[in-house]
Design brief:
heterotetramer; A: mainly alpha; Serine Threonine Protein Phosphatase 5, Tetratricopeptide repeat; two-stranded antiparallel sheet; disordered N terminus; B: alpha/beta; Rossmann fold; Hypothetical Protein Tm841, Chain: A,domain 3; 2 domains; six-stranded mixed sheet; 32% helix; 24% strand; globular; binds adenosine-5'-diphosphate; binds magnesium ion; DhaK_1 (chains B, C)
Chain lengths: 219, 333, 333, 219
């Protein structure tokens, strides 16, 4: 309905999404690391930033298809991040790439499929369900909100905005949880009261998507 | 942050280069992707042992590459698991046609990255097995966590499985030995002070001037309990008893014992801990057949220590005593 | 003060007991007066090497007792020279009829206490010689000071003279070798942080969060200069160059090099220093024939490092390579 | 002339002197160590206290001659102190004992000879002259003052009081000096501005002598 739904999602929008995600992580690197310091090992910000910067360097040039761009990100994250988030986000982008392989532009439903595949990849690799205080707690509600909004006929822009809000709320909701997956799980009860760092990076990813995929400046 | 480093980003690369320069007779260092390989690798017909993990635990793992121990080590960034490329390229460089055994400390990141690497290698037709080390009894509720962390026991798995591989054992056999060690080894650690990850630049956690953390992880992950500082003898008991109980060690059994420094602890203090450990085990009729006292698996400059006990039998002792020649562990050569 | 100790007064006794318990095959510990002796001492017909000094520098000296190195070590209180009784009783316990060589680090207290011990032993008819180690180039004006301090070079003197004694060299010959090493070895150290002597309970000196001390002594004695923290490569140059210059090392010469941690420095950082040291020496055409990287002569939990270089020739390299089996140094066995 | 010159110096006065010296060092242990922290290795107080406490335990019983008491102190200091001060004070007490060997009571001249021998022992062992910022800078003026006062007919009490003052002044005078002996010499110019710890322990010894040897409560 809004003007931003005008053009379909092409490679340049995907590129803008990846850039925005990298920018957000770079800007909030210290915050991500500080969250990880509280209940992990103080590297989530550095890890994600290192990987996304490498991804930017390795992005294929203009005209690349969405799937190729996402695959390049996947390979960069797998080869550069390490830690838990490397294989998790790496697998997510690999699955996202596969979900849209061969398409030059994506319909709203393709975008939803892309994020659904990403979530499935993370859950397969990491075996975490909801409520375990991980990035899944941000991504799963985001994917649900995206689906639901599109189903009720919202524009992609609106739907992504709702997904981003859902991610943020899901991340907020990790604060009172006790972690049962990943490094934070070693803290047991002491993990309560802290936001899960991966849920924040996942939120940044969804916010980057909302700000770029449905239009807006392509950089 | 006070460290002998140049640039935060270069810490692991430069230290790995230094290791290579200091021990050219033992190891060869490759840069991209980063791994440390035995100088004489590949040893044809020998099972290749590969380990790795975040850096900051030196001498683990790079210091244990060499004859009778690891064929390759893959150092990640400080406290960050290595990436699959490292294990894949290391495996290709060192495997001698008899298969590859990954020795993986049980951390979500390590497990997943080694898993990805194993998938990629299997696809290339290289036989890969993995043994998980999960010996940290500080993690009590392994059902509700990512499971016990791999800590000091890793040194024992690497040494003993390394001896079996060096002696020409098959992949099945080396895997069996590695599992036997990991099934019979337990550890627990504590910290007097935090460490500072270079990329972060400030201490991972804060401890009061009169506080200590019992059950600390090797990345500065908080432990079982934060409490007031106690005398070394009491601390030793707090670490040793859960380990002994968890192993179910009984009178008449023998162990290989390690009193490990976290990186910033004077050796003087580690020997004070060893003294009490020997007393505690002696009172229970448990014999320390072999021991290590020193910095074997560290957390940067953290002050503190850990105790590791391995239930030993003749097979494990024989493999323990077998010659080893690496930058950090050497005997019989 | 955060330390793994029980009572301040018991630190050295308990640590020495721990050393004895951990290495009964190598050393025997006596309590009153306190010394650490080779388990198989006295070795008949062998020159007995005895060293000692304040504690807090572990593994020096107790960790260097054993085959191919020291016959006995006399640990004083932390940073306090031992008393003559210790050296006298140690010498009586370990001398094998071929004379005794004292290896003394050049500190007023050590020198005088060993001197008193030598006088007492000579009076009992035991031949005693002393070799002074004074290798610290940080002390510039040795005319106006108590002379250069004995630091890292001590490890080299103990290893190499130890090998000569083990090979059956006469007292004259062992003394000649020890002097040759001490004449050709130089060191310089630096600190990032202070250490805390247990009996005092607070840091010996204060350094700002961005400061370091160049030319530090192993007791936390202030050094040449206090300055802003610099990158590891620059620090390495600041330590290595005065050592190279003082030795007058020339292109084509070879050295045994040690990058030593002060006790609280991660091995990771020591390898970063070694990397640069290798580059500096390489650029000057000086070959590192052998090296040690690790904690060999420490200052409790001080963070920092020192560099020691020994001008090596075939004789010294042969003795360096000779088997050694002590708690802290082992090869060829 | 004063009443305190009444009785000659017997073993019990020597015992009182030793006790007083030990008390003063115990009381000022932290001060001695703090001075040593500034220009040495922070152990002078602990060293001297450990040695003097051992000396007290080993003192021969009532009726012991001055020389025997001093010799017991010497042996205890040599076996227990370590560091530089152990052999120095040990040699000092050994020479002092020798200087009065065989005497049951000491005349003022014997007391002067005792301290002169002590100083000579320290200088022979440590090779330090005056002005090198060591205990010699307190002891040498004290010995001179003692001699001079007795020569001009002062009582032992007065002479020892002057000696103690001279020691204190000598110690004060070490503050601006640059050390050229002992551990402090490594500091070079940076040793200026700090009192030499050994000069303070030597002052305490002379003050203990002044308070006990010429009479007064035998502790
Ligand atoms: N099993 C898992 N499934 C999903 N997410 C996980 C899992 N384990 C950890 N995470 C996520 O990874 C984040 C930590 O990533 P990072 O700090 O980069 O890795 P590491 O824990 O290895 O240091 C956590 O905040 C959490 O969101
Ligand atoms: N060569 C010397 N001659 C006389 N006194 C000395 C000499 N060297 C050191 N001293 C004295 O010893 C004191 C230090 O004693 P102490 O701290 O117990 O020994 P150490 O220096 O071995 O730690 C110095 O303050 C100084 O007065
Ligand atoms: Mg992390
Ligand atoms: Mg990590
Ligand atoms: Mg001292
Ligand atoms: Mg001192």
């Amino acid at each position: 309905m809004a003007g931003d739904a005008a053009a379909a999602v092409d490679g340049e929008r995907i590129r803008a999404f990846i850039r925005r995600f990298a920018e957000k992580v770079a800007a909030q690197k210290d915050e991500l690391t500080a969250l990880d310091a509280a209940i992990g090992d103080a590297d989530h910000g550095t890890n994600m930033d290192r990987g996304l910067q490498a991804a930017l360097e390795r992005l294929p040039g203009e005209g690349a298809a969405p799937g190729d761009l996402l695959k390049a990100v996947a390979m960069a994250l797998i080869s550069k991040v390490g830690g838990a988030s490397g294989p998790l986000y790496g697998t997510a982008f690999l699955r996202a790439a596969a979900a849209v392989a061969g398409k030059a532009t994506l319909e709203p439903g393709d975008v939803a499929a892309l994020f659904k595949a990403a979530l499935a990849g993370i859950q397969e690799r990491g075996k975490a369900g909801r409520g375990e205080k991980t990035m899944v707690d941000a991504l799963a509600p985001a994917v649900e909100a995206l689906d639901a909004a599109l189903a009720r006929g919202a524009s992609l822009g609106e739907a992504l905005a709702e997904a981003a809000r859902a991610a943020r709320e899901g991340s907020d909701a990790t604060i009172p949880l006790v972690a049962t997956k990943g490094r934070a799980s070693y803290l047991g009860e002491r993990s309560r009261g802290h936001r899960d760092p991966g849920s924040l990076s996942a939120t940044l990813m969804m916010e980057a998507a909302a700000e770029t995929l449905a239009g807006g400046p392509a950089s | 942050m006070k460290k002998l480093i140049n640039r935060v980003e270069a810490v692991v690369d430069e230290a790995t280069q230094g290791l290579g320069l200091a021990h050219p007779d033992l190891v060869r260092v490759q840069a991209e992707p980063r791994f440390v390989a035995r100088a004489d690798a590949p040893v044809q017909g020998k099972v290749a042992l590969i380990s790795g993990g975040g850096s900051g635990h030196e001498p683990l793992h790079g210091g244990y590459v060499g004859r009778g121990m690891l064929d390759a080590a893959c150092p990640g960034e400080v406290f960050t698991s290595p990436v699959p490329d490292q294990m894949v390229e290391a495996a290709k460089a060192v495997h001698g046609g008899a298969g590859v055994l990954f020795i993986v400390k049980n951390y979500t990141g390590d497990v997943m990255n080694f898993e990805l690497a194993a998938e990629l290698l299997q696809a290339e037709g290289i036989a890969v097995r993995s043994v998980l080390v999960a010996d940290d009894v500080a993690v009590e509720n392994s059902l509700y966590t990512a499971g016990r962390r791999g800590v000091g026991g890793t040194v024992f798995v690497e040494k003993i499985a390394g001896a079996a591989a060096e002696a020409g054992a098959s992949l099945d056999e080396v895997e069996r030995i590695a599992r036997k060690v990991s099934d019979n080894v337990r550890s627990m650690g504590m910290a007097l002070t935090s460490c500072t990850v270079p990329a972060k630049g400030s201490p991972t956690f804060e401890l009061g001037e009169d506080e200590m953390e019992i059950g600390i992880g090797i990345h500065g992950e908080p432990g079982r309990e934060r409490m007031k500082l106690r005398p070394a003898d009491e601390i030793t008991a707090m670490l040793a008893e859960p380990v002994i109980d968890d192993l179910g060690l009984k009178q008449g059994e023998q162990v290989i014992a390690m009193v490990n420094g976290m990186g910033g602890t004077p050796l003087l203090e580690l020997y004070i801990v060893y003294r009490k450990l020997a007393e505690i085990l002696g009172q229970r009729g448990i014999t320390i057949a072999r021991n290590l006292v020193g910095n074997y698996i560290t957390s940067l400059e953290m002050q503190g220590c850990s105790i590791t006990l391995l239930r030993a039998d003749d097979e494990l002792l024989r493999l323990w005593d077998a010659p080893v020649h690496t930058p950090a562990l050497r005997w019989g050569v």
